Automatic annotation (TrEMBL):
ATP binds at T339. Belongs to the class-I aminoacyl-tRNA synthetase family. MetG type 1 subfamily. It comes from Flavobacterium rhizophilum. Homodimer. This is Methionine--tRNA ligase. The lineage of its organism: Bacteria, Pseudomonadati, Bacteroidota, Flavobacteriia, Flavobacteriales. Residues 609-711 form the TRNA-binding domain.
Length: 711
């Protein structure tokens, strides 16, 4: 692990531009990387926070074919949506590029060409699946079939999403083309492979020995499993018409494999940023005093810890990542997030329903982050974290401090009198929080770090609750001046330490406290700075920093004018949450309807067989639960020919009072049968809806009397 790096290159996984961004992406990659980068900047570090849209590969082609548009139209549409979502949620990239950019095509081509010229690839002619109807080779995702490991009949040519196995398209049993539905044939084609097996010893020494103590166990374990299974050469080119053309002779109709091209996007995005800022990009990727950190989800671990490092090692001039703090998956209301099934909370839709509440979602996702295992997002938990933590703890403390300062002193911070032991202990504890929170962030424990930030807000609440300035103001108003001064120091500390996690809230709090109007050349612990006069430009460069909280004697000075109170957070009502739950339920119902398959036809019967059944219309007159039976209702039914008892297994779907008066269809000539001592004289006809709930087969038409025969 690199100690005291001169600069930081922080990358966030390139989002794939075949759909918008949802909360799983935010929780897994973009909020953690933003917290880390904002924290580094607050410490005055040299940071390049890099990302961009991943715009090549077969999924883009598939999306374009499905929507009847060009791949360029697909990537333009989703690049803009994704980029806007990041901006809306305060993800503070120094550069957000795209792999369709000219600088990226040039960078990726040069990277490939150098490895090609130096003989780092293996050139092989292999047999690949070919669609004779479409007249094209089939990339992995254009092939589905049965997984040879688990039997899933809908596995893709590169991976089985049911068992997680990595596959080759030729491994599939009964493969078929997703383009035409036909069975593909094997046809020879030439490709270039990176011989990963030649980098086995390097990867084992670098990761299994060098990073066994500082990489997350979920990352280390997955890499070790891959290495123990044995590395094999991996193709870096594909037969496809969308992507970066392979820049060598004899490679017509071939493009760089998207997982060779995409991580190079970090480098090309850094080049783009450096050129714009008048910087040299190379130290951020080639200097040994640079710390490189990749933030990714667990589905990208192998590419960032095995394949991309092998590429960088083969090229020879690049540094390797110091850490790859990958998160696990976030589920939604007990089910796996799915873009194709619309089982997601889309960021652009969230802001339509919860305008101005970006930080609430950032908070909920961070406090429930899937850092070492999969976690579940629920709307009830989201509501509870907002109401019980952000509103009741953080927001409550700030509101009390600002309201009381305005009430007692017209918003002017009072000059403190002598500090008591409680005051000193509180300020000492406050000054410890930057180091405590920093320690958690530097170990990529963002959930833990956020918990410590909230502990600082709790410290402020406890101080006010114990000191009770609203009571003390009548007995000893001079003492209250000190109490409010201390509480305001905690508020100022929160405005800085909350910024990585809650950037919009931090900005609002700084505005309430008018911290940008404070010239921060003030007394530090044991040292008095020279008195300086500040113009606006100088003020902006002397804002409170992370480390100031621990060493400054005074974060916000006496006689400073603050603003009026504004609520930082608002309570979220049950109705707002129910609306989101209902939206998901509607999605689930639609998915069930789309996926529900009719039962196969039963054995053929004759008309005479059907005619033997006497089905009549009827009305349920009475209903009660069968004692000691969860599923059974005892019904009295008017069949038009009599009133009879029928025992029906519908108690889990209906309450007795809900079915009284229901018009039903009854099989009346079914042989009687005793159920728990009660003789049932017929059967009520039912079916199921898409949710699996029982539904009556109703004779709804007006003028249909009980006893009418159904034929």
């Amino acid at each position: 692990m690199l100690q005291d790096p001169k600069r930081y290159t922080v990358t966030a996984a390139l989002p794939y531009t075949n759909g918008p961004i949802h909360i799983g992406h935010l929780a897994g990659v973009y909020v953690p990387s933003d917290i880390y980068s904002r924290f580094l900047r607050l410490q005055g570090k040299d940071v390049a926070f890099i990302c961009g849209s991943d715009e090549h590969g077969v999924a883009i082609s598939m999306k374009a074919k499905k929507e009847g548009i060009t791949p360029q139209q697909v990537i333009d549409k989703y690049h803009n949506i994704i980029k806007q979502s990041f901006e809306d949620f305060g993800i503070s990239f120094d550069n957000y590029s795209r792999t369709s950019a000219k600088v990226h095509h040039e960078t990726a081509s040069e990277f490939f060409k150098k490895l090609y010229d130096e003989g780092k690839f293996i050139e092989e002619v292999t047999e690949q699946l070919y669609d004779e109807e479409a007249h094209q080779f089939l990339a992995d995702r254009f092939v589905t079939g049965t997984c040879p490991k688990c039997g899933n009949e809908e596995a893709y040519g590169d991976q089985c999403e049911k068992c997680g196995s990595s596959l080759n398209a030729t491994d599939l049993i009964n493969p078929k083309s997703t383009i035409t539905g036909s069975k593909p044939v094997l046809k020879e084609t030439k490709h270039w492979f990176l011989p990963l097996d030649q980098y086995d010893a390097f990867l084992r020494e670098w990761i299994l020995e060098g990073h066994k103590n500082d990489w997350k166990p979920n990352v280390f374990g997955q890499v070790k499993s891959w290495l123990d299974d044995g590395l094999k050469p991996r193709a870096v080119t594909r037969d496809l018409d969308w992507g970066i053309p392979v820049p060598v002779e004899g490679a017509e109709g071939k493009v760089l494999y998207v997982w060779f091209d995409a991580p190079i996007g970090y480098i090309s995005s850094t080049k783009e940023w450096a050129q714009r800022e008048g910087k040299d990009w190379q130290p951020y990727w080639k200097s040994n005093d640079t710390k490189l950190v990749h933030f990714i989800g667990k589905d990208n671990i192998v590419f960032h810890c095995v394949i991309f490092p092998a590429m960088l090692k083969a090229e020879g001039s690049y540094i390797l990542p110091d850490n790859v703090p990958a998160n696990e998956f976030l589920n939604l209301e007990g089910n796996k997030l799915s873009t194709s099934k619309n089982w997601a909370v889309w960021l652009h839709e969230y802001l339509e329903d919860f305008p101005g509440k970006q930080d609430v979602l950032r908070y909920a996702l961070t406090s429930n982050a899937p850092e070492t295992k999969d976690n579940d997002f629920t709307w009830k938990d989201f509501q509870a974290r907002n109401n019980n933590e952000l509103v009741a703890i953080f927001g409550n403390f700030i509101n009390r401090v600002v309201v009381l300062t305005n009430k007692y002193y017209n918003g002017v911070i009072p000059t403190p009198n002598e500090f008591t032991d409680v005051d000193e202990a509180t300020l000492t504890e406050m000054r410890a929080y930057p180091a405590v929170i920093a320690s958690s962030i530097e170990r990529y424990r963002f959930r833990e770090a956020l918990g410590e930030l909230m502990n600082l807000a709790r410290l402020g609440n406890k101080y006010l609750a114990d000191e009770e300035p609203w009571k003390m103001v009548k007995e000893n108003p001079e003492r209250v001046k000190t109490q409010m001064y201390v509480a305001l120091q905690i508020a100022a500390a929160l405005s800085v330490l909350s910024e990585p996690f809650l950037p919009f809230t931090a900005a609002k709090l700084k505005d309430i406290l008018k911290l940008d109007d404070v010239p921060h050349a003030v007394q530090t612990m044991g040292i008095v700075d020279e008195t300086l006069s500040f113009n606006d430009a100088e003020r902006s460069s002397h804002k409170l920093s992370w480390n100031d909280i621990a060493v400054k004697h005074e974060l916000i000075p006496a006689n400073h004018q603050i603003g009026q109170a504004e609520l930082l957070f608002a309570k979220i009502e049950d109705e707002e949450i129910q609306k989101q739950v209902d939206k998901l339920e509607a999605t689930k119902t639609a998915n069930n309807a789309a996926n529900k398959k009719a039962e196969p036809q039963k054995e053929t019967i004759t008309f005479e067989d059907f005619a033997k059944m006497d089905i009549r219309t009827g009305t349920i007159l009475e209903a009660k639960k069968m004692p000691k039976a969860n599923k059974l209702l005892v019904l009295k039914v008017d069949t038009g020919i009599d009133v009879r008892t029928i025992v029906s297994g519908i108690a889990e779907s209906f309450k007795p009072e809900d079915v009284i008066g229901k018009r039903v269809s009854v099989l009346v000539n079914l042989a009687p049968r005793k159920l728990r001592g009660v003789e049932s004289q017929g059967m009520i006809l039912m079916t199921e809806n898409t949710d699996g709930k029982l539904v009556f087969i109703n004779p709804d038409a007006d003028g249909v009397n009980n006893g009418e025969m159904i034929s």
